[in-house]
Structure formats: C-alpha cells, structure tokens
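User: I'll paste a sequence; please echo it back and then give the predicted structure.

Assistant: Echoing your sequence first, then the prediction.
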Amino acid sequence: MVFFRPKRFFLSLAAFIASQIVVELHAQDGVIDLAALPNYANQKKPAYIQKDNAPAWNQISDAGATLGRVLFYDKRLSRNETVSCSSCHQQEHAFGDIARVSSGVAGTTGRHAMRLANARFGSELHFFWDERATTLENQVTQPIKNATEMGFSGSGGDPAFSDLISKLAAIPEYPALFNFAFGSRTIDETRVQNAIAQFVRSIQSFDSKYDAGRLAAADNQPFPNFTASENIGKQLFLGPPNQGGAGCAACHRPPEFDIDPNSRNNGVTAAIGGGTDLTNTRSASLRNLVGSAGEFNTAYMHNGSFTTLAAVINHYAAIPADNPNLDARLRRPGGGGQILNLTAQQRVDLEAFLFTLSGGAVYTDQRWSSPFSTAGTITLINVPPTPTPTPPSAQPLNISTRLEVGTGDNAMIGGFIITGNHPKPVLIRALGPSLSNLGLTGLLDDPVLELHAANGDLLFQNDNWKDEQRSQIEVTPFQPANDREAVIIASLPAAAYTAVLTGKDQTSGIGLLEIYDLDQAVDSQLANISTRGFVGAQNNVMIGGFILGGNNSTRVAIRGLGPSLSQFGLGNLLADPTLELHDANGAILIANDNWTDDPASAALLGANGLAPSNSNESAIFRFTTCDKKQVRIMKDDLRISAIVPIAS
C-alpha cells in the first residue's frame, strides 16, 4: 500500500524562537568568548513540558555545556582523529544519522544512531536502544571507548581512555575549559561525561506546529492551527485501540513524546547484519522525525529498517509476529501481535500529525553547531587568569565509618555535606570482604551502595564496583580488593547527600563506608559526615576515620549523639555515648564522656551551633594538624553519630 506524504505546514513562533536563539559563538571562525557564552542553562520551555531527567548532581551550566559542545564536535576524541560524536549525531538531522548504520574508526556500528534532540525531556533514565547505560553520563563515553566507533578501547592495540585524558590535557584549550567549567584544570572521565551530557541535554526543540497548537488548546481538544487531517491524526495518536485509536500515546507520551520507561520490544526483531535482537526497548523522542523541509531525518528503529513514517505506521498497524519480549500493549488477547484495522485515510492522518512534531531552530541554532573553524581550530578569548597557587588550607580528604551493618533501620546511613563554589569530585566506597586483612571476622559479604540527594531521590546505586565506572575507578588509588565491594564516583555540587550501605539479599556484617575527595584544587570541600547505625562492643564499636590535607591546622568538631535522636522517632538509643579521638598510630589524643566536661571545648561547640541538646552526649572541639585521625564511639546501641570537620 502506498501513501502520499502530507504537505507539512509550519507556523512561525517568532516570539518564542527569539527568546531561545542566542548566537554568541562564532561557529565559522572557531572563536569561543568565555565572557559571552550562549544561554544553555536557562532556556525557556513551554509550561506544559514537565519531564526533566537532568540529575541534581549535573545540572546544565553555560560553561559546562560549552565544554561539552567542544568535546562533542572534536574528532581528536577518536583514535585516528576522523570521527566525533557529531559524526553519528548530526545537527542537520536532529542529531541523528540518515545512514542506516554509522561509520566508526574500524567499520560500521551495530545499531542505528538514535536522535538526541530533547533527550532531557523524558522520564527514562537509561540510554542506548537496549538501555545498557544507566544514565546519559554513563552513555556518552561508551562510544569513545568502543573499538569500532571511536577506538579508545584499550584492547586489540587500541589506546586506552586514559591515553585520551593525557591527550586532552596536552591541548592548551582543554585545561582552560575544564577549569572554567569545573573549577580546576583536572581532566578525567567523570568530567568528560558530565560536560558532554550537559551539552546533549541542552539540545531542545519546542517550536513545532504541535507546540503552537498546544499553547492554544489542550491535547484532547482540536488545535486551531491544525488541518482536519492533523487533528484526526492527533486523536488517533492519543486514543487507545479499544476506542478506535492507534494507542501510540501509551508508549510515546505527549507532550514530551518521550518513551515510557516500562516499554518493551516493539515487534522489530531483526538485527543489523542478520539474526535477531530482542533487547531494544528505548526510543528517542518522536519530536523532529522529519527535517525543516519535510525530509525524513533518519532511518527509523534500532536497525534502521524503515525509511518512511508510513512504513512505521504499517508496522504498528499489524505487528508481524509475537516474541517473548513483545510489549503487552502490542499483543492481542490470546496471543499474537496487534492488528489496528486502520483505513488508508487514517494512516495518512496519523502521519500528518507526526509531521507536526518537528521544529525548525534545532537544525540551525549556532549554540548546538560545531564550534570549530573550517580549519578545525578553536580559539578562546577572555579566558579568566589562572590565580597564583596558594598553599591549601586544611580540609578533609577522606571521611569514613566502620560498624556493624544490619538490615532495615540498622543499615549504615552516612550523610555528608559539600560546601563551596564548584562541584566536588568524590569517590564513595563500601567495603566488606577486604576488611579481613585487618583481622576482622563477621564481615559484610556483598555490600550494596546507594547515594541519595537531600530530598531522598536516588542518584546512584552500585552493587559490584566493576559493573559500572570501572575504568574511572581503576585510575584512582581506591580500587577495591574484592569484586563484590561497591564504589560510586560522582562530581557533586554543594549540597547535602546521604550514602546508604546495606548487604545484598538482606545480609549483615561489619562494613566500611568511605568518602574520598578526588580533586583538592576545586573550590569546594567535604565539610561534614553524619553516620547512623547499630554499634556494639569491642570490634563492633563505631569507628570513624578522617584524613586532613593542606598546610595549616583546622578546627574539627566531633559529636556522639544518642538521647537527642528521639526527635527522629528512633528507639533503642544510646543513653550515654563516649568519644575517643586517636591519631594515625592509635594513640588516644582526647576522650570525652559528657560534652560539658571541657568548658573550653563546650564554649566553642556552642559558638558554632554544634552543642548537643543532651548533657549525656559527647563532643570534642579541637584544633588539629593535617594527618590521619580516628574516632571511636563506644557503648551499645548507638543509632547516629556525626563527624563534623569545620575548616578554619
């Protein structure tokens, strides 16, 4: 069956577009003015766009997205300097590829390149067609490390990703850009990921004919700027099959037209190169399926098997075959793929509506275009001067807690605070089995680590450290000795966070929770850790270690709380905590039972707002030098303790 492609009508949204298009980078001459960056961080979007998957720990900044833009277009990120991210994700095609398979440094890719426009505006956090990347940040460096795509794989004679880091560090523009974006000249995979992810999330498109109609009416009402065919197509898209619709909106949810995270296989099962591929459950936004002149932006589906929207509609109108992963919404009662019984005119109407989802500015806006000159160069102007290094003040480099990790309320919960002006790169580590080298028994066999924002949102989760971020972890000194131990690396803005350590499958045992500062040059620092857990006697007392770095002494407040925790609804509290502060050799520096016993320390605690509310609780306020310290909190049944370094 052949359908005529409907003529595409575009309504000018001059006021809306004018508020978005800011041309401040000179794409043709390769000049980036760091004093006049484009607006990436505060772009306007329609009020009806509510979904946003940008994580709290990697919000878009103008400086970060600018760095990401340079990395996205730089062919030096490929082994032979012939391919960049933009080679497969082309602005003129809504950051997709019209080729069925893209070409890399060593052949063609195994799946069709997905469009990236509006990647931010959806609730699916996983990326790639098969969702193997848990975040966009995790996704963006995988093509760089792929032997076929960009070639920094570290295998088969390829250079490793660490070689790329060294390469970027030797290019003068990059240390300056990383310093401008992140507060220090350090270049690592986490920062590369964060910058490219910021740029990709900044690519947005809300100037389509659909948006003009949606500003005037709700989705379930006719749009005044639509043709009759387009309005009928909208009804078909929104309506479920049992009510005469096509059911498209169940998986591709307006007004963002993002993919439902619970979607499964869509009936397209053929793999590129032959065989089957049933693992694909992700989809790009349905916005910008066609270009500004009505041309198709890409081949469609993970294998690029459809070259027109009519072919896509025909596929969903009659799913060719059932398979074990087929989405239940595409399966008839009793088995077999859905059959929609759409008429020829209904298919034309549905295609007409899909054409209205494409905008115009995304294809031409210079903030998303290549920042390189035609000669392939970049020039930075108005670069802030690098300040003369000063001896760093004392600051925590590591804070950690060891205790018995239980289940439920007896899990280890460690809250910490980051202060300062730039995101702080940290490594959070949960150890169990490797603590046997300390002569301990009854260890947590398989630690599971979670990192939460102050509002409780889950930011990261890790079970076994090699599962994710392996290459980033292996270049640090903190690679765990046991594969079952957990690690999270993140660059976190100033805020409060909570790390939760549990045992897999509700197991318990002695565990160690650690937080390391990965870049002391950044203008921010670890400022506090508060650990809650069950503390017993002997080897099961709570032991909190911290390391201070820098050239000066600093003030450190350490508190052991028990009775006052009743305000949090906790029971079985420690009635009379006792604190000891030890040096790196284990010698006791100071001990405290009741915080008011030392008048000088008590006065300083009160002056800094850190005085415990119960006289039986213990606290120490001390000026200390930069080295390793250990805190022991004793007596049974402690639920929460806190180690609070306060920089002078």
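Residues 549 and 626 are 5 Å apart (CA to CA). The longest strand covers residues 524-535.
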